[in-house]
From TrEMBL:
Molecular functions (GO terms): oxidoreductase activity
Protein name, as recorded: alcohol dehydrogenase (NADP(+))
Segments forming domain Enoyl reductase (ER): 14-341
Cofactor annotation: Zn(2+)
Organism annotation: Streptomyces yaanensis
InterPro entries: ADH-like_C, ADH-like_N, ADH_Zn_CS, CAD-like, ER, GroES-like_sf, NAD(P)-bd_dom_sf
Transmembrane segments: none
Catalyzed reactions: a primary alcohol + NADP(+) = an aldehyde + NADPH + H(+)
Record's keyword terms, sorted: Metal-binding, Oxidoreductase, Zinc
Length: 346
């Protein structure tokens, strides 16, 4: 075991505090990663407050991890010491079910092992990226291309792949009209990625406060959802809508914006149940769907795509002592657009 410094949530809704945790010894197929940067995802806040259900404490959040390999196991073939690597939302899966064999480990039928707030195969709690080091199986580690700085690459391991995967699955590209609900940590990545894929991109936000940002990030259009005229003007015009918000929506209203056969895909996960009149989907053969990150193969594909197109997250770099303030600011939508922790300050 190796003792490393970390920031942990001692109990539900409690402030994070500096502590130490134990990392396992490097096994045959493991890599030891010196974490350089860790993004703060809204998912971290949901889980730290038990908004998505009972959680494991103490909890070290963080599943947007970028760092450098400092040790490899004897059987490791994918990486060597000094490589630039990333770890996202999962660190293991059964590797045997049909989804795992298809490269969609995130949908493992036995349940993927989360990077934190989960139990590994030995029944030990997993701890995330708000820490100095992490030990991960090489099969759940990805290479960060040289064209991406580690700090702006860290959020790609969740925010990037969470939006890239549905855009690819629902065929965003030239000739497609794609809308993004919410211009936050996820939403700003969805705009960048959809634009790079060649789609016509619209942002749907509560107000026009971030319109200039949205257009600079690559949106062709920007509408305020607080204005009823938005829903009149855009009715039946969109092929795909990606909802990145974690608050309940009037899904009937947003579904009305889709063309026949269109899809509204949720990547934000509200804590509350939703209500839906099924005629909203029946009337136009529409799809209300969800999507969760991507498999390891697709995550690597996303990183390579971002490097090719010069896409990184828009970040605000913070020290570890600012994490609790950052949580409050995320809840107040006061970040443009992703907090990233400089783990040298832990």
């Amino acid at each position: 075991m190796t003792t490393v410094a970390a920031y942990a949530v001692p109990a539900a809704k409690a402030p994070l505090e500096r502590t130490t945790i134990e990392r396992r010894e490097v096994g045959e197929f493991d890599v030891l990663i010196d974490i350089k940067f860790a993004g703060i995802c809204h998912s971290d806040i949901h889980q730290a407050s038990e908004g998505w259900g009972e959680a494991i404490f103490p909890m070290v959040p963080g599943h947007e991890i970028a760092g450098i390999v400092s040790e490899v196991g004897s059987g490791v073939t994918k990486f060597k010491v000094g490589d630039r690597v990333g770890v996202g939302c999962m660190v293991d899966s059964c590797r045997e079910c049909e989804n795992c064999k298809a490269g969609e480990e995130q949908y493992c039928l036995k349940g993927m092992v989360g990077t934190y707030n989960a139990l590994d195969k030995n029944g030990e709690p997993t701890y995330g990226g708000y820490s100095e080091k992490i030990v991960v199986d090489e099969s759940f580690t990805v290479r960060i291309p040289d064209g991406l700085s580690l700090d702006v690459a860290a959020p790609l391991l969740c925010a990037g792949i969470t939006t890239y995967s549905p855009l690819r699955h629902w065929n965003a590209g030239p000739g497609k009209k794609v809308a993004v609900i919410g211009l936050g940590g996820l939403g700003h990545m969805a705009v960048k990625l959809a634009r790079a894929m060649g789609a016509e991109v619209t942002v749907l936000s509560q107000s026009l406060r971030k319109k200039d940002d949205g257009l600079k990030l690559g949106a062709d259009h920007y509408y305020a959802t607080s204005d009823p005229k938005t829903f009149e003007e855009l009715q039946g015009s969109l092929d795909l809508i990606i909802s990145t918000v974690s608050a309940p929506l009037d899904f009937g209203a947003f579904l009305s914006l889709l063309k026949t056969g269109g899809a509204l895909v949720n990547v934000g996960a509200p804590e509350e149940p939703i209500s839906l009149n099924l005629f909203s989907v029946i009337g136009g053969r529409k799809t209300l769907a969800g999507s969760m990150i991507g498999g390891i193969r697709e995550t690597q594909e996303m990183l390579d795509f971002c490097a090719e197109h010069g896409i990184g997250s828009e970040i605000e770099l913070i020290s570890a002592s600012e994490i609790n303030d950052a949580y409050e600011r995320v809840l107040n939508s006061d970040v443009r657009y992703r907090f990233v922790i400089d783990t040298a300050t832990i």
